[in-house]
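new request in #modeling-help
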Amino acid sequence: MHNRLQLSATVEREADLRYTPAGIPVLEMWLRHQSRQPQAGIERDVSCEIQAVLIGDGAPRWAGKLTGQCIAVSGFIAQRSLRNPRLVLHIEHVELIKG
Amino acid sequence: MHNRLQLSATVEREADLRYTPAGIPVLEMWLRHQSRQPQAGIERDVSCEIQAVLIGDGAPRWAGKLTGQCIAVSGFIAQRSLRNPRLVLHIEHVELIKG
């Protein structure tokens, strides 16, 4: 089943690096996206905010380096928890976009 | 700026086809996704619900035919409105997945 989001965004805020009880590093962040997208023959302004999380080896590598940066990310979306349907992007790949 | 979501999902509900004041057809629907995705060395169950909208020529072509179907869609995500930050998938391409 496909589930893949590719997004360019600015990192508005990063949480402190934390570890799961099993010792896996977790870095949560909040992304803001703005672009123009073609739709039904016109260009429309598109914006959104999405919470994102980087789990595993990438988390300590990027921790503290992302706030304010423009990044290109890809990963899958999932609801935050069984009780919270808010969408979270689980980042599989991240790279900085040069300004 | 990249903004592209590819998702396989079941259509839980479809709204009635409507038209904007400019006469552009709009079909709103609600999608449920379930899959397993690899993360930090393990497979995790992933699920989410996302509202989606098909705007333009595709809307009347698919109206009334999607509820209960499994589909593969791609498009961009945007917040619902200036005041409502909920994410909506703007569908650019849809195809039925054979069961």
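bot summary: Chain A has a mean pLDDT of 95.
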